[in-house]
Automatic annotation (TrEMBL):
Residues 209-433 form the Sigma-54 factor interaction domain. PANTHER family: PTS-DEPENDENT DIHYDROXYACETONE KINASE OPERON REGULATORY PROTEIN-RELATED, TRANSCRIPTIONAL REGULATORY PROTEIN. CDD domains: AAA (cd00009). Gene3D superfamilies: 1.10.8.60, 3.30.450.40, Homeodomain-like, P-loop containing nucleotide triphosphate hydrolases. Keywords: Activator, ATP-binding, DNA-binding, Nucleotide-binding, Transcription, Transcription regulation. PROSITE patterns: SIGMA54_INTERACT_1, SIGMA54_INTERACT_2, SIGMA54_INTERACT_3, SIGMA54_INTERACT_4. This is Sigma 54-interacting transcriptional regulator. The keyword Amino-acid biosynthesis does not apply.
Length: 521
């Protein structure tokens, strides 16, 4: 078989695996095993291993051959200990180890694990595509000779094909993680949103006049098809209010689909919103309808719309004005009947002035703006909100009829909650987990500041402090929280949880404020 035929046949075989892949880790493992099997047809080996790059280490991911023992499958290689392997990855070129390398150089990556003779056949093939580096393939044979140059060249070509196939499956994994599909997605969203409806309904029964007015305005606009823009601080319950508007509208029996514009990479967001055709980009192994079509007849909630990339703003404007979308990779337009409710904490007028947001899109979104009231301005609603939140939390923490002691409730009423309803929910959930019974006391809440009149989550500036802009104050507060968490964004006790916002939103805000990226550990 000549080179062209061999490459074409191998590419077709890998493509078949990718086409049948379901975006799981098992599909990737199958691809790697099939790749090693195919490579053995032109580069015989006693041991072939695919190593995946993890930081500064290579971790064995797949292995084939007579010497593929369980120890091999858990083997790790530190790149700092192997300059020749690091160079092969950086230069995207295969590397063969000679007898001189084995005897007087770095040795063999399996020294101490395998008893290969010095001078045995050994080759490293980088698995890279563009700027992406998956890892390497290593091939070893007990025969004391080096792999000939034509074989090395073929292996290098195949390594690029395998890397491209890996990238396809990885892209499919990202798409699968970003969204559920069809009815399964809608059912999951409905289960989540049912728990939110009761809390949004508290607006009508609020003890605060401007909150009751917000509920009245929301019900007025709900009966129309007008676009609504929800404004206010993070954590004030924008998604809950969007669901409230949907449930009060003639579209209530149709889907309510939320999407966070800041939570997805821009290259996935367009496909997520408008769909794509099969083969439109690497990893598009099947066509997708997109969320606009999933919400047809219903409501699409675009959260953090102020973070929408500039290249997508024009397409969103077209969808709002004409009810038309164009899937990625398609030239045909599709009519949709979708009511859009958008939300942002960003000052869109300032973003328009700075040319970060299209002026025509801003006016199209803000047909009927609604301003959500921060929790510190509706303290009288804390008991009602806490009661509803505890009913939602009870199944999650495995305790029924959760309630607050009088001391705990009084302590919560004295806090300002800069993270608003989301922060209140987090505080209650931590307290419910710590409580030995269904009663949550003030000690279980572990509030960061003594609960005195006017207590705040962060200390107010003293008289001698310099006055700074709102953005600078936000940057300083985030920096203090990151310092307290050792730079950790995610998980329990992470900066995102303390600030009461999703980690993706925190990362987006840090980027906007020009802050260095924190550790994700």
């Amino acid at each position: 078989m000549n080179l062209d035929d061999w490459v074409a046949t191998g590419a077709h075989e890998l493509a078949d695996v990718v086409r049948l892949a379901d975006g799981t880790e098992a599909a990737l493992d199958e691809l790697l095993q099939r790749g090693l099997e195919w490579l053995g047809r032109i580069a015989p080996y006693d041991l072939a291993v695919v190593f995946e790059l993890e930081g500064a280490e290579l971790r064995a991911r797949a292995a084939r051959g007579a010497l593929a023992s369980p120890d091999v499958r858990t083997h790790r290689i530190r790149l700092d200990d192997w300059p020749s392997i690091r160079l092969a990855v950086e230069e995207r070129r295969s590397r063969v180890f000679t007898e001189e390398d084995h005897a007087h150089g770095e040795g063999d990556p399996f020294d101490g694990l395998m008893d290969f003779p010095h001078g045995h056949a050994c080759m490293v093939v980088p698995l890279t595509t563009g700027r992406e580096v998956f890892g390497i393939m290593s091939l070893d044979r007990t025969e004391c000779q080096t792999y000939p140059r034509p074989v090395v060249d073929l292996a290098e070509v195949f390594g690029r094909l395998l890397a491209l196939s890996i990238q396809c499956i990885k892209q499919g994994q990202k798409l699968a993680e970003a969204t559920l599909h069809g009815e399964e997605r809608i059912q999951a969203l409905d289960r989540h949103l049912e728990a939110m409806t009761e809390q949004a309904g508290i607006l009508e029964g609020s003890r605060v006049p401007k909150v009751r007015d917000l509920a009245r305005q929301a019900r007025l606009v709900a009966s129309t098809n007008s676009t609504v823009l929800l404004l206010g601080e993070t954590g004030t319950g924008k998604e809950r209010l969007a669901r409230y508007i949907h449930d009060a509208s003639p579209r209530s029996q149709r889907p309510f689909i939320p999407v966070n514009c800041a939570a997805l990479p821009s290259n996935l967001l367009e496909s997520e919103l408008f769909g794509h055709e099969r083969g439109a980009f690497t990893g598009a192994v099947r066509a997708r309808s997109g969320l606009f079509r999933a919400a047809n007849g219903g409501t699409l909630f675009l959260d953090e719309v102020g973070e929408l990339p500039p290249e997508l703003q024009g397409k969103l404007l077209r969808a709002l004005q004409g009810g038309e979308i164009t899937p990625v990779g398609s030239e045909r337009t599709i009519q949709v009947d979708v009511r859009v409710v958008a939300a942002t904490h960003v000052d869109l007028e300032h973003a328009v002035a700075a040319r970060r947001f299209r002026e025509d899109l801003y006016y199209r979104l803000s047909v009927y703006p609604l301003y959500l009231v921060p929790l510190r301005e509706r303290k009288d609603d804390v008991p009602l909100l806490a009661e509803a939140l505890l009913r939602e939390l009870a199944p999650r923490v495995g305790k029924s009829k959760l309630r607050l002691s009088r001391a705990a409730l009084e302590a919560l009423e004295r806090l300002d909650f800069p993270g608003n309803v989301r922060e209140l929910s987090n505080v209650l959930e931590r307290g419910a987990i710590r409580a030995d019974s269904s009663i949550i006391d003030v000690a279980h809440l572990r509030l960061t500041k003594p609960a005195g009149k006017g207590a705040r989550a962060s200390s107010p500036p003293s008289e001698g402090d310099a006055l700074v802009s709102l953005a600078e104050n936000e940057r300083l507060h985030i920096a203090r929280v990151l310092e307290a968490t050792g730079g950790r964004l995610y998980g329990q006790g992470g900066a995102a949880e303390i600030l009461g916002i999703p980690p993706s939103t925190l990362q987006s805000r840090m980027k906007r404020l020009g802050m260095p990226r924190a550790s994700d550990r």
